[in-house]
């Protein structure tokens, strides 16, 4: 089953058990991220965050382009106050705070806001023809949705500075070497590879996956000792789950586990 909103900018495909495929569908603008697209993405991820039947999410723009950036026409006459009052960070937060594993399947351009959107995921699968970049400098701007922060954390100062300050376009293979991409595939295998990985994740114990994601992402913001403490407490918490018992018993009994998220 596929759910589509009235403007057909975002589709959610539920046809694969325990998996949701979120697709940006604005091909006439190369999936440019205008305010309406961001609102609809936020709504989709908010709903999926509370949907216990969904254990993993694939985020894609389709076979041709992921998202070519923000919609500059929407920004052309905007002033500072206009941009502040749009509060677009609320839409991005719905994605970054999603407790489920999110896999970005990137074909074609992932530029500006599109690159930032991909970096909101947990894993990035890129087709060989994918291109990443933060070209905002070329129109007198800078990244405004995490490009100066998440990119630094992903690839380090010197790769990030080159991309942000020059607006350089980075092909998928180079992005993989830099650490921006998890895996590179043939272009026609990008989405199938992401779906296969999502299916694998959907078989894992959901509570453990959520704890892993929460603790790992916190490591970017807290000192090592605090992170280790949080990790230890989360590790101990999992010993109260039924899934821990099922996992260990299945291992001992040499059978496949059946996790219930309890």
UniProtKB/TrEMBL annotation:
Pfam family, one: ECH_1
Lineage summary: Bacteria, Pseudomonadati, Pseudomonadota, Gammaproteobacteria, Moraxellales
Keyword Lyase applies: yes
Family according to the record: Belongs to the enoyl-CoA hydratase/isomerase family.
UniProt-listed GO biological process terms: fatty acid beta-oxidation
Source domain of life: Bacteria
GO MF annotation: an example: hydro-lyase activity
PROSITE patterns listed in its UniProt record: ENOYL_COA_HYDRATASE
Protein name (Swiss-Prot/TrEMBL): Enoyl-CoA hydratase
Keywords: Lyase
